[in-house]
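Lecture notes, unit on protein representations.

Consider one protein chain, 459 amino acids long.
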Amino acid sequence: MQDRPSSALPYGTSEFYASLVDRCVQGLLEAVGEGNVEAVLMVGAPTRGEATVVDTPQGPYSLSDVDLACVGKPGVDVAQLRSRLAAWVALANTEFARECTGVDASVKTRGAEAPVYPLIATFEMLRSPTVVWGSESILSELPEVALADVPAWDSLVLLHNRTVEQVLLSRRLGASGEDTGVASPAATPGGTLGLGEPIEPGEILERGEPLEHTETLRLLYASGKFLLDAVTALLFLDRNVPETYADRAYAFSHETLVRPENARLRSALREFVPDIETWARFKSSGDLSDLSGIPGATPDDPIALARHCFLRYAPCCGIVWRAILGSVVGTDALKLPTVSVVRLYPRLESLPRKIVRSLKMLRSPAGRAGLFSTGRVLKRATFASPRMLAYATAVLIYLSYSGSEDEGVLGSLLRETCPFRVPPDFAELPLERKREVLIDSFSLFHASVLRGRKIPERS
């Protein structure tokens, strides 16, 4: 094995993060066997020099994952390799829980054995992989994804997915409750924490128990990362996506927004542009003092700042949602009221596709587990598929925190878009209770539909 796998990372990478990478690569190879692996690659922002490491009272903590990919040798049993890797990932996430937000690893096949789709995630993964073990010649075999081939609708998927995560974040932040700085109950009927992560032993927080400092940092990072990923989604529409977040912030404010055709978007996002540049700086520095420029910021209290940013970016979500959805369907949605924007969803899918997707979702593990209401899904099948209905519902929930939307209108729209099983009195519930009911459903939706985790079927 190479003495320091992390030596392949960009100059200036935190020594702490480099040590994490070295230990992860060593553990991975011991778990799967060096003889089975041609190379180990690392992907993500750290390979571009943006590993986010924060100093805490307990020592350094990485808000950046360690994301690895194994390239198996010819003839290796791929299924067995994946099984060993999955077992190691579970152990690694326990071992490094107090040092970083997570460790992930996947198995990649060589050549043309697996299809490569021109999606944002694939483009991001293949644009700057780094070989941390094995021969760098493997890079010449990796396929390429052209920026021009990434479909516009995938920008909407990216925003939708991040909005679902914001909905889950609201419970962990207690965004609709008192500003107590303590955790709300973390367990949900879906068996996941409020952020959609699987519950590990000892991880459930009781009411009133203060959050650990590393957990507050994770919540803060998630609240700001939403803004950076919203910008990334817009830049993919613009076919102008620099590698680093710092360069993306600059390109967005100095290139995309200055064009005459984006005057309405520029005006709508004016107050958030400085925040975008601030979060981009923090992404590479990990210095909480960099966040002091956010209006109303309290960098010395991460949980209060996370809650503040969550609420601050709710109206921003509505603006970006309108811009992206409008671009996908060919309409200037920035000037439309929320009701009219929701009415654009039927244009995202053909009628046969909506019907087929509705039936498939009802038969999926999530459907068999009772996540969706059969009656609601079938009644709305000509409007949108269950996934699109869930996405629209997530946006409406996040917008409900903005303070600029009519609660009666939002409540009515939530009744129309929600595809989940809900209590019989759901229509009469106040908006805050509707949110609580739906957050439970989104926890299961995120784990099963978006992340593909196995869930027990309803008996």
